[in-house]
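Collaborator request, handled under Task 6.
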Amino acid sequence: MDTDQLVAFQRVVREGTFSRAALTLDIGQPALSARIQALEVQLGGALFTRGRRVALTPLGTSFLPFVRRALETLEEGQRVAQAAQRGERGRVTVASLGSIAGGLLGPALVEFVRVHPEVECHARSGDHEFVLQQLWDGAVELGILVWPSGNASAHELEVLSVFDEPVVLAVSPRHPLAQRRSISEADLIELGRPLLKLRWWLTHEPKLLQLADRAGTSVEIAMEAARHLVRRGAATGFFPRTYIAEDLERKDLSALKVEDLEPFQRKLALVTRARPEPLSPAAQDLVSAIREQAAKLGLVVERRERKIRRR
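Structure tokens returned to the collaborator:
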């Protein structure tokens, strides 16, 4: 039983004669009759009573609704597949570092969903190891993590883009350090206590550990809790700028430059599992949205266009 047979059956029902049905299908009447006969053989009985105008037999009457349903399903499947090929339908999955999810991935998803309302989106966030595991398990197609990944299986990842993100000293606008025109390492050690030990890469930045130790700091907490402490003027800390972008915009936090301290940066990468087939059009559009948001945030974006050729 094939689609041509089902279409022929439905067309004979609609037109009422074999000759008119064959004409609308642009085939000869013998070819149409052969399709109907093949269908009748498979079903084990006649579908029509033949005459000047054909009529459905009880077998044909009971079979007709299923034919209509099958053809409608196939037509819908064709429309969905074509829409997916254009990036208008389908499914995209992504996992991101929690520290970048709100500033980079979230706004990119807002724009992506606005343009692609029919695409199913699944986004998750966690630490670096969580993102890697999601990629290895096949739970997500795209991942945003620190780079290099520090994992032995990193060669199995294809890098789509690399982002350079500044890491800045954040203080409350009411903090004594925020009132100074310029600050030095000595000022930070004297007035910045407690200088929180924050890990925003695979390991702690050695220079920041040294500064925290010189300041007599022993506070090591998650960045979300640290952000609240700093906003209340109870501590200072170095944060990835994207993580506190909204706080800086609302002036809930101030970003300060330490004059005699080399600026800190971390590298992030938008990656996918290495595989022979290209990304789906919908996934490629999400990649573009993430890049555009990174550019809006002032992140330096290194693109790897070769990795995401369109089909």
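The cover message to the collaborator said: "The CA atoms of residues 13 and 295 lie 59 Å apart. Residues 88-311 form a domain with the D-Maltodextrin-Binding Protein; domain 2 fold (CATH 3.40.190.290). Please let us know whether this matches your experimental observations."
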